[in-house]
Design brief:
Blueprint (H helix, E strand, L loop, with lengths): L2 E2 L2 E8 L2 E6 H5 L29 H12 L10 H13 L5 H8 L6 H10 L2 H15 L17 H12 L4 H10 L8 H6 L16 H21 L18 H12 L1 E7 L6 H19 L3 H20 L5 H13 L10 H7 L7 H14 L5 H6 L2 H14 L5 E7 L6 E4 L7 E5 L18 H8 L7 H14 L20 H13 L4 H10 L1 H4 L6 H6 L12 E2 L2 H12 L17 H8 L28 H5 L18 H9 L1 H14 L7 H16 L5 H20 L2 H6 L9 H15 L6 E2 L1
Antiparallel strand pairs: 1-2, 2-3, 4-5, 6-7, 8-9
């Protein structure tokens, strides 16, 4: 693609040659547009035979397609399978035996719908669906790059996502607050925390890094993520040149860039429950003592600090003239807030701001930085005034002030930051200046509207935007059926796959908007539909006709996500701590991994209940992700992930069999299912039935039961000939159960936790 005569052009191939067509021409001719750029229209419900199968309007579209292909839907799944499926899909946890029993014994025709409503109201719903959103946000608890410093307050955004989903915040408001919550009138602390979505970009604090280069990279990442998550387009391809396949020019990329170029990273006080009152009570005394420390030298400090700031600003305006001050300006950008998750360039932004415009917090933070690093402006005077001693005294005073939690957010920079087209994508080779705007192929940006992030967010969720609702519905469907209508869920452009059910996609997109962008409402329709309730067993006919289940003649059989594998193991073993929210935790992991990625003291394993929190809360370090999750295909947090891969590798089997976490879970499951009289035939059978049902939601059949009985007896012979291993296998004595019997039973429990059915959602 290339720019010609002031128009946005792209190539169109046709038989016999190449045609160059202005993008504006296609925008004015909807019938020529790629399907995803056309307006969403609500199609009429199709008329179908066998209408008794239809439970939701969704089913009519699916059934029509199946009938056209000469196929029939699969039978309904067994009730035991159905409750396990929907519980895993909506909460990420397996149903309890009590929940399964209650469902099986409920004679009402609405029994299933009652289960769905209970699950949608569960606080664990937000935890399960937050994981999917954190994938697209590429959330992590560290900066990335080589130094990969930690972000101890990143979890506040994660908690906002969980809470917003549990409240069923409309996706339109969900969008607005994450992209521009700070710009809302009288923005609340929670609305500001929502902008933590934009703080998930990587930050480079390595020595020698060009802070402006990496600030630019962060803005580009935000544009790429926005394009992927809301528009389903590879807009990042427009960074260096016009998009080669989609009608997005380089100019339009930087016009989108301009919306975010004026945003800066900052951290704010965001007190948790119980923090504010002690802080406010102690603050007057703290302020009084701090003023007393600074008062004797206040005038001299102000004079020195102004000189120091002026030299820094001169270095910024005239790079290359004084290496030492260039370096000091660079270091300010590199080390500010390091290890605290603070906005990396916040210190530079404060220096650029006139002193009279700074907030009290900004003034306090910059003077403390100056007292620690500002001696270079006049070392002799600095020492004469004893400023290092004053900094030490302030540090001690700060340590006494009750802690108030912080949160990483975005805010508009107070000074102008113009945007230029970057020639070849090079940040230091500016071309023509551009103003904020949206791609011409999409509905026009509203006139007489401020061109800021807030207006952009509102534009994304207008009814006229053809992409946002489609892209979001596609991802929701993908989570429940294993694949979306559009397989390339992050690319709805010309290089993506066409939708398998375009009319159903548009019907759901319209329904989504009409139902006030409620995620829970549209999910309820999906999971209550007959197409969702089908068996996942694959008939022979479908193996050849539709092996990828594009036509939806069955439900998908899906290996659980990395987090769900861990969570389900914790749940069935009785170890799971169901507490919602809080800071990230650090479960035990391999000493070799810890040493390689964290050093001698960088990973202190959690104690007590924190060892058994849901995987959502596991601390994620970009350079050293938690191995257990990586093994089961947790995504790379360096970039947005709209669709996880599902692999099947020997390493997964070895992890399930041998990892200390899964061994501990086997031991705990064994303790819960060992019954008095276990060594007798009846006790063994009862324990097998109990354990199997806990793991799979159903009783074993006679063949499965006999295989597990045989497994127990083989393992009993193994430990009989190696009794010294029994203590290791089962370290806790079990009343009225021989230790060798208990050790063999632990092995059987490990087998049940390794069943294909256990780690699969059928």
């Amino acid at each position: 693609m290339r720019r010609m005569a002031g128009h946005d052009w792209f190539w169109c191939f046709f038989v016999g040659g190449l045609l160059v067509v202005p993008a504006s021409t296609l925008a004015d001719a909807p019938d020529r547009l790629h399907w995803s750029f056309r307006a969403v229209s609500r199609p009429a419900l199709p008329r179908v035979r066998q209408g008794t199968w239809v439970r939701e309007p969704i089913d009519s579209f699916v059934l029509q397609r199946l009938q056209r292909e000469g196929l029939r839907p699969s039978p309904m799944a067994l009730r035991e399978t159905l409750i396990r499926r929907v519980t895993l899909d909506l909460t990420g946890l397996p149903p309890s035996i009590q929940e399964v029993t209650a469902f099986l014994q409920n004679p009402r025709p609405t029994a299933y719908e009652e289960v769905v409503d209970r699950l949608l109201a569960s606080p664990h719903y937000g935890e399960r669906w937050a994981r999917s959103w954190l994938d697209v946000a590429h959330y992590a608890d560290s900066d990335g790059y080589l130094t990969d410093q930690l972000r101890p307050v990143a979890w506040r955004f994660r908690q906002w996502v969980v809470d917003a989903l549990n409240r069923d915040m409309g996706f339109d408001q969900f969008t607005i607050e994450q992209l521009a919550g700070d710009l809302l009138p009288d923005a609340t602390t929670d609305q500001q925390i929502a902008t933590g979505f934009l703080r998930q970009t990587l930050s480079n604090r390595e020595g020698g890094a060009d802070v402006e280069e990496f600030r630019v990279n962060q803005v580009k990442d935000r544009i790429s993520t926005l394009g992927t998550v809301w528009l389903g387009l590879t807009v990042a391809c427009g960074e260096c040149h016009d998009h080669k396949y989609d009608p997005i020019s380089q100019r339009e990329f930087f016009e989108l860039y301009a919306f975010f170029n004026t945003a800066s990273e900052v951290n704010i006080d965001a007190p948790l429950v119980g923090e504010l009152e002690p802080f406010l009570a102690a603050r007057p005394g703290y302020d009084r003592r701090r003023r007393a420390l600074l008062a004797p030298q206040r005038e001299a400090i102000t004079t020195l600090q102004r000189r120091w700031e002026q030299r820094l600003l001169e270095a910024d305006a005239n790079p290359g003239q004084n290496y030492q001050w260039d370096r000091r300006w660079e270091i300010l950008g590199l080390i500010w807030g390091g290890g605290l998750g603070e906005g990396q360039l916040e210190g530079q932004e404060i220096v650029k701001l006139a002193p009279e415009l700074r907030t009290p917090t900004q003034r306090a933070r910059i003077i403390e930085y100056f007292l620690q690093y500002g001696a270079a402006i006049d070392p002799a005077r600095f020492g004469q005034l004893g400023l290092s001693g004053i900094k030490t005294a302030i540090d001690a005073l700060n340590a006494q002030l009750p802690r108030v939690s912080r949160a990483a957010v975005m805010c508009e920079t107070p000074h102008d930051r113009p945007t230029f087209i970057q020639q070849g994508g090079l940040y230091n080779d500016p071309g023509e200046r551009v103003e904020p705007n949206t791609p011409r192929v999409l509905p026009a940006f509203p006139l007489n509207t401020p061109r800021n992030r807030l207006s952009l967010a509102r534009w994304l969720v207008t009814r006229e935007n053809p992409l946002t609702a489609r892209v979001t519905i596609n991802r929701l469907w993908q989570e429940l059926f294993g694949r979306g209508f559009v397989l390339t869920s992050g690319d709805f452009g010309s290089r993506g796959t066409p939708p398998s059910h375009p009319r159903l996609l548009d019907w759901l997109a319209s329904e989504f908007v009409d139902r006030e962008w409620s995620i829970k409402r549209v999910q309820r329709q999906m999971v209550c539909a007959a197409v969702y309730r089908q068996s996942s067993r694959e008939p022979d006919k479908l193996q050849t006709r539709d092996p990828d289940n594009v036509l939806l003649a069955r439900q998908a059989s899906l290996r659980l996500s990395a987090e769900a594998v861990r969570d389900c193991t914790l749940a069935v073993s009785g170890l799971l701590v169901r507490r919602i929210g809080g800071p990230s935790v650090r479960p035990p992991q391999s000493a070799a991994v810890v040493m390689g990625g964290f050093g001698k003291s960088g990973w202190q394993p959690a104690e007590g209940e924190d060892r058994y929190r849901r995987a959502l809360y596991t601390f994620i370090k970009r350079s050293t992700p938690f191995p257990e999750l990586v093994t089961f295909d947790a995504p790379n947090t360096r970039e947005s992930c709209t669709r996880r891969e599902r692999s099947n590798t020997p390493l997964q089997a070895l992890t399930l069999l041998n990892a200390p976490f899964f061994q501990e879970a086997s031991q705990q499951l064994a303790r819960h299912t060992l019954l008095p009289g276990f060594s007798g035939a009846g006790g063994l059978v009862q324990s097998i039935d109990d354990g199997f049902r806990i793991c799979t939601g159903r009783f074993p059949n006679s063949r499965e039961r006999q295989l597990l009985i045989d497994c127990y007896h083989r393992l009993r012979e193994v430990v009989r000939h190696a009794p010294q291993t029994a203590q290791q296998v089962m370290p806790w004595p079990v009343p009225n159960v021989d230790r060798l019997d208990a050790a063999a039973w632990v092995g059987v429990c490990s087998v049940m936790l390794n069943l294909h059915e256990f780690i699969t959602r059928n």
